[in-house]
Design brief:
With 158 residues, this protein is of the alpha/beta class. The chain has a single domain, classed as P-loop containing nucleotide triphosphate hydrolases (Rossmann fold). The protein has helices spanning 15-21, 52-67, 86-91, 110-120, 135-148; strands at residues 43-48, 74-78, 99-102, 123-128, 151-157. Helix 3 (86-91) links the parallel strand 2 (74-78) and strand 3. It comes from Pseudomonas farsensis. This is SOS-induced cell division inhibitor SulA.
């Protein structure tokens, strides 16, 4: 009679714990090995759908990690939603000394401001809330990011 050998079971983490146990958005790390050819991924997009509180809970660790980046440049937030206040940034544990909150002027669109911030290169990452982007807009952001040696992250909240 053969002894019964029970297969070893892997421990399964709840969804959010598994997500948070991994490095947040490793594709956004400038010092990481390039993902395509010799050029790192300069444009990323994140779509979050659901209750605003849940979306903010998922967004907080991403922004926190970006605010603690080893790069000496800023994390720029372009036209963030009104719910991302200074109090929310503080409560989420972000390094507010490394963050620029930028709102477009009266003769400037959020896209123009994001492209300008990317081109100038004073920020390692420029986070924007531009909604759904067409290919032409993505290319504008990508060219601006390449010019400033920065990374662009567009967040779509649904």
């Amino acid at each position: 009679m053969q002894p019964f050998i029970q297969p070893q079971q892997q421990v399964q983490l709840p969804l959010f714990e598994a997500f948070l146990a991994q490095p947040v958005l490793p594709g956004l790390k400038a010092k990481q090995a390039p993902l395509k050819g010799n050029q790192p991924e300069l444009f990323s997009e994140l779509a979050l759908r659901g209750a605003p509180g849940h979306c903010h809970s998922l967004l907080a660790p991403i922004l926190r990690e970006l605010s603690e980046e080893d790069d000496n440049r800023w994390l720029a937030l372009i036209a963030p939603p009104g719910s991302l206040t200074q109090a929310w940034l503080r409560d989420a544990g972000l390094n507010r000394e490394r963050i620029l909150l930028l709102q477009p002027g009266s003769n400037q669109t959020p896209l123009q401001l994001a492209c300008e911030a990317l081109r100038l290169g004073h920020s390692h990452t420029v986070v924007s809330w531009l909604g759904n982007l067409n290919q032409s807009t993505r290319q504008q952001l990508l060219r601006a990011a390449a010019a400033g040696n920065a990374q662009s992250l567009n967040i779509r909240l649904g």
